[in-house]
Amino acid sequence: MPSFTTTDGLKLHFSDAGTGVPLLCLPGLTRNGDDFNFVKPHLDRLRLLTLDFRGRGGSDFDPNHMNYNIGREAQDVIELLDHLGLDKVALLGTSRGGLVSMVLAATHPGRLAAVILNDIGPEIASAGLERIMGYVGIAPNSTTLDQAAVGLKKFMDPEFPGVPLERWRAQAAFQYDETKGGLTLRYDAKLRDALLEQAQAGPPPDLWPLFEALKPIPTGVIRGANSDLFTAETLQKMHDGHPGLVSAEVPDRGHVPFLDEPEALDIIHQVLEQI
Q1: Which residue among 151, 160, 197, 211 sits deepest, i.e. has the most Cβ atoms within 10 Å of its Cβ?
Q2: Is 244 helix (H, G, I), strand (E, B) or coil?
């Protein structure tokens, strides 16, 4: 993967393939660009880019873990666009990547051609947050990717019924590295410290003004029908405030859809056709 150096000296990895409308894919909290491997074959007419946020995937860990915040990560996106000489892109943001996308809509709206949010909105349900804090920054008990796949399937099956083991084996490889000593996280475990310390610093900010900034921008939302982080009620409130919003719920999916489901692909294409 190619890389670029941020203004504060970190080397961040990204991918850049294909031609056409540029679509930059931004992954979730602990994820990386590999998370979009399932959807990539369906977007082969685009210039498809992914970014490993600082501290994730192939990107450098930040010596100051408090820089793991959506404001700094949004700035990293702008620095990537400047590095590539791209004036404007569409964004496909999964979870944390969707929050970064909303920050960019508020701070750099002229750089965004469209935004697609994958299972995220301006209100985050506490049940989903509690589940995430139950595993973020904690090394897996499994020692091989095959074992991790079995564990993922068992853990995720209530929200993702019927997903075959092979899919979870691929997902495990996106999330963990297999070494002689067992599995290691593909992100900086100090991300957990950042989340805890940021929570202790005060109540979370109101994200609705960030969502409001999306009104002039073609926007789509994908929701996992079983999501415990992004509720159907929040999605309805988003529609009430953004008349041009298009959305779909993906059945038998929780947080987050894989994005190769027909409902997800339909929203992605609907939004991109508006550019």
Answers
A1: 211
A2: coil
Give Cα 47 distance to the centre of its chain: 18
Report the C-alpha gap between 251 and 140 in whole angstroms: 28
pTM of the model: 0.97
Structural domains in the chain, sorted by start = 3-135+190-272 (3.40.50.1820), 138-186 (no CATH)
Closest CA to 42 of 274, 271, 270, 260: 260
Q: State the pairing for strand pair 182-185/176-179.
A: antiparallel
Distance between CA atoms of residues 93 and 53, nearest Å: 12
Q: Which long-range contacts (CB under 8 A, 24 or more apart) does 199-207 make?
A: 204/124, 206/122, 207/99, 207/102, 207/121, 207/122, 207/123, 207/124
Closest CA to 38 of 56, 29, 54, 50: 50
Q: What is the largest CA-CA distance in the chain?
A: 53
Q: What is the pLDDT of residue 1?
A: 79
Residue-wise pLDDT tens digits, 43-72: 999 999 999 999 999 999 999 999 999 999
Backbone angles phi, psi at 103, to 5 degrees: -60, -45
Cα dist from 137 to 33, 134, 191, whole Å: 18, 9, 6
Question: Using CA atoms, how far apart are residues 5 and 76, in angstroms rounded to an integer?
Answer: 9
Residue with tokens 């697609």: 116
Which alpha helices (DSSP H) does the chain contain, by range? 70-84, 96-107, 126-133, 145-156, 165-175, 191-200, 208-212, 232-241, 262-272
Secondary structure class of 130 (helix, strand, coil): helix
